[in-house]
Amino acid sequence: MEHKERSEVLFFPYDTGRAFLRGMKKLFSGIAGVVSEGDSVAVKVHMGEYGGSAYLRPPLVRRACDLIKEAGGRPFVTDTTTLYPGRRFTAAQYRATAAFNGFTEESMGVPIIIADVEQGYDGEWVDVPGRVSDCSLAKLKVAGEILKADSMIVLTHVKGHPIASFGGSIKNLAMGCVTKESKAAQHRVNRGVIDIARCTGCGQCVEACLFGCMALQDEKMVRDEEACMNCNRCFYLCPEGVFCLPPRAKEDLQVYLAHAAAGVLSRFHSKVAFMNFVQDVTPLCDCVAPSGSPVVPDVGILASTDVVAIDRASLDLIGRSEPLRGFAEMRSADILGAIHGTDSLVQMRTAQELGLGSMDYELKEQE
After folding, report:
1. Could you give all domains of the chain from N- to C-terminal order, each with its CATH number?
2. Could you tell me the pTM of the whole model?
3. Which of 5, 187, 279, 328 is close enough to 298 for a disulfide, judged by CB 3.0 to 4.6 Å?
């Protein structure tokens, strides 16, 4: 995938008092070239966890769908099921949660399609093109309904993440466009390390595991390492702190995210564009309910055909913003990385090395 030395990132700031619907139209005009007349267009979006409130607002997604129609495309709103147990674990659960959060065919004016189908395993294996930083991810199972699309518009609510630190378009591609197997493969690098001396044999991890990977033996927990899907539910539920993250888990996950994004993008031949919404920038991701108080004021909307540039520009705009109460002492060019104890740029550097785009960009404010 070839990119100019300085990639163009269009920017619509929220602090000018201009209507966001008009701003989105202006931004979309700069990326509409990825949509050809008659294209089936996947509108990739996270439709929010049950009980969450910081996910991307439905009117923003509806506006994007309407603009795609005006460009001659046939959009559908899509996402995939979760690896962790919850109210998006199956397609039926996700559709119900999406409707609760305001995403229906009636509200969007287009179909709502859960791309990996009911149990989250429907897809096609693709090769990951090139590998760097000792990444072992060689293949990726991309969700089937996303693969059927001719082009894709990725709408991303920019926020923090407890392990990746920054959730932008790279992560939206990497985790959001693949099946459970490939979510698990990426999360393998942050599978909880067991300190068995802490285990009291309470059995809560056994009850919590929907994949049947945990058992009690001699009043201690044991994990089937081959069957484990790396959802880390046991990690978060254990009352005794038996689990901890392995060394470099946060940096390694970012490396894998970049490789997974490369696998997804390899199937679309540059017919993908991105819109990042830098608002409700919470410390935690949309999968967590609640995801925390905002770190900075709402910033604006960005658009680009370069996934690396748009994520870097989003991170930079957050870093230049005045932190809100509770985060003032953590002022940093990478405040989300500071909150989570890692460097958010790892995923962008890796994606650049893989040829997905450039960290050198030109920000063009739209009037």
Report:
1. 7-187+248-365 (3.40.50), 192-244 (3.30.70.20)
2. 0.96
3. 279
